[in-house]
Amino acid sequence: MRDHADWVSSLVSCLSSIPDIPLENAMSRTDDILRGLSRRDRRRGFASLVSRRSSVKSEVRTLERFLDLALTAETEAVRLNAVAGFLWNVGKRKVSLDLYRRAMEWGDAQAIYDYARAAHDLGQVDEARGAYLELVADDSDIASRAAGDLALLVDDQLEKVRLLERAFPHRPELLTELAWALDAIGDRQRLESLLINEMQRGSVAAPILLGNFYEDRLQDLSRAEHAFRVGAKRGDAYSLYNLARLLYLTGRKREGIKALQRAARRGDRMAADRLRELEALR
């Protein structure tokens, strides 16, 4: 069995040559390199390869997944996509994008999605938008993810809301974008309902958004304070800062300063700056 150090050297050479030779030749070389290696030796060698390029252990696991997928792929689209993912993560972005483009030509949904994200990251917005549009007409999970990414590329706020509402059940991290979009179209009822529901479900992001909504849009300081207190109890420094600010503005200065101090200790720069301003006024 070939020593894994020899395998690393061969694989580095093979992958580095992909920009200069047909992909089919490179993949054939990869098959030759890997023939006879156990899965364990493959992983050992690959970890050594990645350690030369990155010291981040989490990247090793990510790249191992791409390589394993490339070696066991049942279709050409999956194989191309996996190699593209590998090359993307070791910094060969332009070559990777070309492979993503070839993979998506097979009509594979994951390949189309990965190409869209890669094109977007490289600033090719029109190409990314076109790829996302190929996916959003479907009812699959990946179509919902694509809808969330596409929403960030559209200017029409009604369309943005439609896409974000479709993506949000699968991507809760889009709550802020959805809230802002609903606010932009002036749909306060849907916005309030969304944020109340998410706050009740334990969201850390919802209380600060709901508190700002009550304070800025409805001028309801009582409900704003309640929302900020909920967020502060969940460890959100911004909610704590806004609570402190509201307490100070409504005459409860001592309580407000204590809240500012807690927010500053949690790393909120605005709270720290405000404390320095108050100290200078003494």
Would you kindly provide a brief summary of this structure?
This protein has 282 residues and is mostly helical. The chain has helices spanning 4-16, 23-34, 39-51, 57-72, 76-89, 93-104, 109-121, 125-136, 141-151, 157-167, 175-184, 188-200, 206-217, 221-233, 237-249, 253-265, 269-281. It has two domains: 1-136, Serine Threonine Protein Phosphatase 5, Tetratricopeptide repeat (Alpha Horseshoe), CATH 1.25.40; 187-282, Tetratricopeptide repeat domain (Serine Threonine Protein Phosphatase 5, Tetratricopeptide repeat, Alpha Horseshoe).
Notes on the protein architecture:
There is one protein chain. With 282 residues, the chain is mainly alpha-helical. The protein has 2 domains: 1-136, Serine Threonine Protein Phosphatase 5, Tetratricopeptide repeat, CATH 1.25.40; 187-282, Tetratricopeptide repeat domain (Serine Threonine Protein Phosphatase 5, Tetratricopeptide repeat, Alpha Horseshoe). It has 17 helices and no strands. It has helices at 4-16, 23-34, 39-51, 57-72, 76-89, 93-104, 109-121, 125-136, 141-151, 157-167, 175-184, 188-200, 206-217, 221-233, 237-249, 253-265, 269-281. Helix 15 (237-249) packs antiparallel against helix 16. It is elongated.
